[in-house]
Amino acid sequence: MRDIIKLSCANCQRSNYHTTKNKRTMSEKFEIKKFCPACRAHHPHKEGKISKG
Fold first, then answer.
1. Domains in the chain and their CATH numbers?
2. From the CA atom positions of the chain, what is the Rg in Å?
């Protein structure tokens, strides 16, 4: 039931982190403030889906 998601920077749109998320308990999009190495600052990172292909 856990899905793999990627966390992309809201400022530069680079995917810097990946993690898992339980779809049953967290149905909305996940967003957390993390460090972006490309921007060299803390920015919100939003959830994106990793394609299985």
1. 2-49 (2.20.28.120)
2. 11
